[in-house]
C-alpha cells in the first residue's frame, strides 16, 4: 500500500503548470495582436502623415514677416497661381522658374505698402476693388454696335469665375490682390510727383536678342559693315521701347538701371559689347548726349515706376522684414505651379 501511494503523480501541481502555460500563451497571443494592430495603424497613418507634411504643414509655414505681420507659403502659392494664370490668360508664356522669387518680393512689397499706405494718404475702397475686377475681366464692347448689356454682364461673371477656377483662388484672395494693385498704382502716382521734367539723357538705339549666341551673330554682321537699323529690323526682339529700326529715343538717367553705366559712358556711334540683362541681351548705340532734355511722357512713366521701386526699397530698410525661404520651399512652390498648369491644360482640352 505504501509503495502504490508513492508511485502516484501529484495532480494539483500539474494543473497549475498547465494553467500557467495557457496564461502565458494567451499573453503572447495578446502581444502579437497588439503588435499587429500597431503595424496596421502605422501603415494607415503613413499616408495621413505624408498628406499632413505635404499639404497641411507647408501652406501654414511663415515665409516672410513685416513688423511681425506674417505671410505664409500658402499665400505665396496663391499669388504664384494668380500670376501664372494671368499670364496664360493673356496668351503669354510664364517663366515658371522665376515666379517663386518674384512673388516672394511682391508679398514683401505688398505688406510694406499696406502698412505704409496711410502715411502716403492712399487707400483702396471696396468700390475701387470692384471697378478693378470689372476692368480686368469685363468683355470689350464693339464701338458703334448695340450689344446686350445683360449678355455682357453674364460673360463678365463667367470669365471671372473661370479665372478663379483655373487659378484655384477664392474671390476673397483675388480681391486682396486687386487691392494691392490699386494701392501700388496710387502710391506710384504719389511718389512719381518727384520725377523731374528735365533730366540728363542720351539718345539710344538698341538691339535686344534672346541669348549670347544670337548676339554674337549680330555683332559679326555689324562688324562686317551691315547697318545697325537694318539688322535691328530683322532681329530686334524689343517692340516695347524701340521702333522697328531699333531707335529708343531720349533715355533719362534712372530709366534703365541695368544699362545706365554703359549708356552714359559709351562714345557716340560706338556699338557696345553685348550686355546681359533680365529681359535679354542688349547691343547698344548712343548717337546724342549726354545732355539735359525734357523727359517725354513714355519715359516719365518709367521714372515713376522707378521712383516707386526706390520708395519700396527704402521702406524695406526702415521696417523689420524677415524672410525664411529655402531651396526646399522653392521646389514645393514650383510643384504647385506645375499642378496648376496641368489643370489649366486639362480644362482647355475639354
SSE topology:
Blueprint: H1 2-7, H2 11-60, E1 62-66, E2 69-72, H3 73-89, H4 99-120, H5 126-137, H6 149-167, H7 171-191, E3 198-209, H8 212-223, H9 228-235, E4 247-252, H10 257-263, E5 275-277, E6 280-294, H11 297-318, E7 321-323, H12 327-349
Describe this structure in words.
This protein is α+β, with helices and mostly antiparallel strands. It has 3 domains: 2-56; 66-141 and 148-193 and 305-349, no CATH class; 199-294, Chitinase A, domain 3, CATH 3.10.50.40. The chain contains 12 helices and 7 strands. The chain has helices at 2-7, 11-60, 73-89, 99-120, 126-137, 149-167, 171-191, 212-223, 228-235, 257-263, 297-318, 327-349, and strands at 62-66, 69-72, 198-209, 247-252, 275-277, 280-294, 321-323. The strands form 2 sheets. A 4-stranded antiparallel sheet has the order 4-3-6-5. Strands 2-1-7 form a 3-stranded antiparallel sheet. Helix 3 crosses helix 6, helix 4 (99-120) crosses helix 11 (297-318) and helix 5 (126-137) packs across helix 7. The protein is elongated and about 115 Å long. The relative contact order is 0.12. Mean pLDDT is 84; it is low at 1-6, 48-57 and 346-350.
Amino acid at each position: 500500500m505504501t509503495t502504490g501511494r508513492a508511485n502516484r503523480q501529484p495532480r494539483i501541481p500539474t494543473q497549475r503548470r498547465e494553467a500557467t502555460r495557457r496564461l502565458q500563451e494567451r499573453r503572447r497571443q495578446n502581444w502579437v495582436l497588439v503588435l499587429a494592430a500597431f503595424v496596421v495603424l502605422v501603415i494607415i497613418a503613413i499616408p495621413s502623415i505624408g498628406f499632413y507634411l505635404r499639404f497641411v504643414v507647408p501652406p501654414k509655414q511663415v515665409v516672410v514677416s513685416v513688423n511681425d505681420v506674417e505671410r505664409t507659403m500658402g499665400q505665396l502659392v496663391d499669388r504664384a497661381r494668380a500670376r501664372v494664370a494671368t499670364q496664360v490668360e493673356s496668351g503669354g508664356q510664364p517663366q515658371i522658374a522665376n515666379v517663386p522669387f518674384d512673388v516672394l518680393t511682391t508679398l514683401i512689397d505688398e505688406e510694406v505698402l499696406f502698412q505704409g499706405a496711410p502715411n502716403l494718404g492712399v487707400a483702396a475702397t471696396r468700390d475701387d476693388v470692384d471697378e478693378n475686377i470689372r476692368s480686368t475681366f469685363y468683355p470689350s464692347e464693339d464701338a458703334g454696335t448695340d450689344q446686350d448689356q445683360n449678355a455682357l454682364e453674364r460673360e463678365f461673371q463667367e470669365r471671372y469665375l473661370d479665372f478663379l477656377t483655373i487659378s484655384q483662388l477664392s474671390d476673397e484672395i483675388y480681391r486682396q490682390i486687386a487691392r494691392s494693385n490699386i494701392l501700388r498704382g496710387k502710391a506710384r502716382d504719389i511718389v512719381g510727383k518727384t520725377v523731374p521734367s528735365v533730366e540728363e539723357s542720351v539718345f539710344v538705339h538698341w538691339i535686344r536678342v534672346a541669348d549670347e549666341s544670337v548676339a554674337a551673330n549680330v555683332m559679326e554682321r555689324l562688324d562686317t559693315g551691315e547697318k545697325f537699323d537694318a539688322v535691328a529690323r530683322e532681329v530686334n526682339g524689343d517692340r516695347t521701347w524701340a521702333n522697328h529700326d531699333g531707335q529708343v529715343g531720349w533715355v533719362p538717367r534712372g530709366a534703365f538701371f541695368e544699362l545706365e553705366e554703359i549708356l552714359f559712358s559709351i562714345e557716340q556711334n560706338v556699338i557696345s559689347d553685348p550686355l546681359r540683362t533680365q529681359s535679354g541681351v542688349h547691343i547698344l548705340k548712343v548717337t546724342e548726349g549726354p545732355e539735359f532734355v525734357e523727359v517725354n511722357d513714355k519715359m516719365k512713366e518709367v521714372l515713376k515706376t522707378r521712383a516707386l521701386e526706390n520708395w519700396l526699397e527704402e521702406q524695406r530698410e526702415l521696417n523689420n522684414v524677415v524672410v525664411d525661404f529655402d531651396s526646399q520651399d522653392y521646389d514645393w512652390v514650383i510643384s504647385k505651379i506645375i499642378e496648376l498648369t496641368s489643370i489649366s491644360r486639362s480644362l482647355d482640352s475639354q
